[in-house]
Structure formats: C-alpha cells, structure tokens
Amino acid sequence: PGIERTAHVTPLPALLRVNHPDPSTRMRAVNALVIAYANIAIGVVSLYPLSQIPGGSTIALIAALGTAVGLVAVVLIRRGWVSAGLYVLIGGFLAAFAAVPLVVKDARLSAVYGSIAVVIAGVTLRRTGVAVVTAVALTIAVIGTWVYPPVDPPIGPREIITAAVILIVINLATALL
Fold first, then answer.
1. Spacing of C-alpha 91 from chain mean position
2. CB of 22 closer than 8 Å to CB of 7
3. Can you tell me whether residue 158 is helix, strand or coil?
4. C-beta of residue 100 within 8 angstroms of C-beta of residue 66
C-alpha cells in the first residue's frame, strides 16, 4: 500500500514477437529468432578475430554475409513467413559451411560447424526437416574434409579459440531454449 510498482520493461518480448496464428509454429519461430539474434551478435563480434586467422579475411566476409542472411531470416520469421525464414536461416548456415572449405581449400572445421545447423534444425524444424538438414550437413562435412583435408600449417591456437568460442556461444544460446 502506498508504493507504486513499475513494470520492468525489456525489449525481449517485442524482439520475439511472431505474427503467426499457430502456437506450435510460433514456438518454433521464437526458437529460431533466439538463434538468429545470437548468430547476428556473434557474427558482428567475430569479424575481427576471424580476419586474424590464415585465410581469415575471406572467412570474415563469409561471416558478414551470414550475418546479413540472419537479418533477412529474422524479418521473414517475425512477419509470419516462418518456413521461408527457417529455410533462409538454415540454408545460410549450410551455404557458409560449404563455402569456407571451397574458398580456403581447407575443411578442418566443417564437421564441427555442420553440427550447428543440426542443432538449429532440432529446435526449429519437424523431424523430416531435421533429417534433411542432418544429411546435408554430414554430406558437406564428409565431402569437404575428403576434398580439402587440413593442410600445413596445422591448426593454430587463434583458429581453435575462435572456433571454440563461436561454437560454444551458439550452442549455449540453443541450450538455453
């Protein structure tokens, strides 16, 4: 009595709002938005560290393009075009994982990064979609590693640390769902 309570306002509910009538689809869309926002933040933060590893300027460009694809996916998902947004988001991840070995001629991390697309599919797609994404990710990882095995010099500490931080943060965001 006598004390007014003010509501704590955060932008999170507005950022996770999806214009879709089906509750199940909305839930998958919210999961995708959490992942997309984390990917966008990580993409921006990782541009400099990525540019410092061998072949990194090209990898940083791919990360920048992936970040832009994430923004497009967010717009589609929030407008209620959830399937289109999910195709863009997951397709962008898979395209980036396929592009890096083609550009730098070294697929040392393809299998590790391919797991991210599978995790995203697991919390956003139905079973058939998860199976398709898993098959595509495995194909990219196996063919990429077969055609472009790791070359000299061996993996350096910066490369391992950058990959580990990016992977851990993305998987943490997914786990928090």
1. 10
2. no
3. helix
4. no
- Give CA–CA dist 25/82, Å, rounded: 7
Annotate 94-124 with b (16+ C-beta within 10 A) or e (fewer).
Answer: bbbbbbbbeebebbbbbbebbbbbbbbbbbb
Tokens of residue 73, six digits = 């996916």
Question: Is residue 89 within 8 Å of residue 35, measured between CB atoms?
Answer: yes
Count other C-beta atoms under 10 Å from residue 147's C-beta.
11
Residue of 143, 45, 129 lying closest to 90 (CA atoms):
129
Q: Residues 6 or more apart from 60 whose CB is under 8 A from it?
A: 46, 47, 48, 50, 51
Cα gap 103→114, rounded to integer Å: 17
- Of 107, 163, 165, nearest to 137 by C-alpha is 107
- pLDDT tens per residue, range 22-57: 999 999 999 899 989 988 988 888 888 888 887 688
pLDDT tens by residue, 57-110: 888 888 899 899 999 999 999 999 999 999 999 999 899 888 878 887 877 777
Backbone angles phi, psi at 28, to 5 degrees: -65, -35
pTM (predicted TM-score): 0.74
Count of residues for the chain?
177
